[in-house]
User: What shape does this take?
Amino acid sequence: MSIFRKKGRSGEKIETQWSTAMRNFRKDKMALTGIAIFVIILIVALVQTMLNPKGWSTLTTDFAKPPSWHHPFGTTDSGLDLMSGCLKGALQDLIIAVIVSTMALVIGTAVGAVAGYFGGLLDSVLMRVVDLLLVVPLLTILIVMSNIFSSGGGSPLAIALLIGFLSWTYISRLVRAEFLALRERPFVEASIALGASSWRVITRHLIPNAIGVIMVNTTLTVAGAILLESTLSYLGLGIVPPAVSLGMLVQDGQGSATTSPWQFFFPAGLLLIIVLCVFVIGDGMQAAFDPRNARRRK
Amino acid sequence: MAQPVVSVKGLEVSFATEGGMLNAVRGLTFELAEQEVLGIVGESGSGKSVTALALIGLLPKTAVVKGSVEIDGEEIVGRAEKDMYKMRGSKIAMIFQDPMTSLNPVYTIGWQIIEAVRSHGKVSKDEAKVRAIELLRLSGIPRPEAALDSYPHEFSGGMRQRVVIAIAMANSPRVMLADEPTTALDVTVQAQVLLSLQSALEKTKAALVLVTHDLGVVAGMANRVIVMYAGRVVEFANVDELFYRPSMPYTHGLLGAIPSHAEDSDERLSQIPGAPPTMLNHAGGCPFAPRCPLAQDVCRSTEPALEPVATADGSVHLSACHFRDEVSSMPVASMFKGAEQILEGAEDSGH
Ligand SMILES: Nc1ncnc2c1ncn2[C@@H]1O[C@H](COP(=O)(O)OP(=O)(O)OP(=O)(O)O)[C@@H](O)[C@H]1O
Ligand SMILES: [Mg+2]
Assistant: This one.
């Protein structure tokens, strides 16, 4: 044995799924660009919001001014600096998106995994709950719930939790379908024959095989959450001023898209860029996790 | 014989199907000592895989299992699933038929072996890695260090099956089950993989239950052989006994169907006419009787018990045939040659 220790690369870590995926990912130019833009937006938004926390609440006499050196994104009809609003809104959207997608990821994967792997009564019960949530229109639930929730006035956290609570069903169905197919694969039986428990089979064999699907759909959920929040804002059920989101700004700017287009195009453009970045990152992740794309170390 | 590593007594497995109870295994009894290799042969559907799965407790929940299976002194039948985890992999391990699908595609070979090594007992990552390299070397993988970082899809079927063998050996189980381990492989690779398996067994001193269609494989690997027919053991003997003095017409039939490589004789292969019975409604009588050229009235009415045939060396040789002694002194497969000529004659006149 000691021979191997000297000869073998025992100092080096053994390849794991993550290390391979990360290595692939680092070679994916599209995805890296996506991440770079995303991070830049995030940093700029953070810095700006920290340096100028009152940017979005300080009224000026510059009503509906086009972009200038002083107001790079122009101002709104009520004289607010649109850049401050867009960046603050972007930050707010990202916070909501992170909460929503984390919930969707965790609840969706857990429910889908349990239903798909164990099947039987557990599966039936869980899937009926999912059906129920899918059948009742999301918007209706949100309208009813947000009235209860937002009696305090549209707290972003409450909105995020609400959207998150209703957004996991899609992932759970996909994970379940994926698991139904995966659990019949011989390597699952082989790993059980080697002494793997259900928990081990699910966490170490099935989820890693479904990770591509899970990742992509989580990123879709991120985009979906941002869009849903803007819909809610439009209906007056989303977050309320002084809090701000990109969706809210887009809705506000929509009316003046012809007269003062910057009020629409800046928040909409930023929203679009963020959503695109998220998609590109998701795509890159799916490709990175496909073992067929594994590139050799060295 | 020391305490056997496998001891099966009166094993019965049935499935409730729409057509009624399907008795897949009926009354199987055998013992297996350390390092012994037991071959299980028989036609498709005779219950070989069900037997193997029963030994490792992997039958679907719909299966009704009776009798007793002891692995290294521990009873498997009726054991709670969560107590089985500890036994699987460490006391008993299984090698499946298709190496193309029995490895997890998303993990490297190294990860999968290390996972197996670490799943029973506390082993550090570095130690596990050293052990993984040793296991790969044992199972005949060239350049095992490099293999650690490979994915299953980068390997050929033969190489994958060696990896599967390495994984099965990871915790030095007392018994290995191999269900047609080489059927999915190229003939040229089969022998190499079997050699790997054999050297793995020598190292770990494990016993092996080898399920196969291929009597050639049995001749090369097994010490003792069980011939199954319609869920029953119809013959049990040492390899030499079985090949030289088969005592059940069905075994004669199986032996007559092997091409002989030795002399290129113009002898035709014989085949067993008819199809194996369904195991749904067993009518009584010998299940092989409808296909047996020697069948008499007694065969159709009473099922023969599994009883000893006299052997020269005093080893145990059991046969379930009313005419076991007569059959054991007949030349191999002679009875089917006649049957085949009759069939051929019928075909010729038809054209
Ligand atoms: N889960 C199941 N439910 C119902 N019947 C089953 C099940 N598994 C196996 N059987 C039946 O049990 C009998 C024995 O099957 P088994 O798989 O052991 O055959 P085998 O000898 O391994 O055949 P082969 O050589 O084709 O692999 C068959 O009639 C089969 O249909
Ligand atoms: Mg089988």
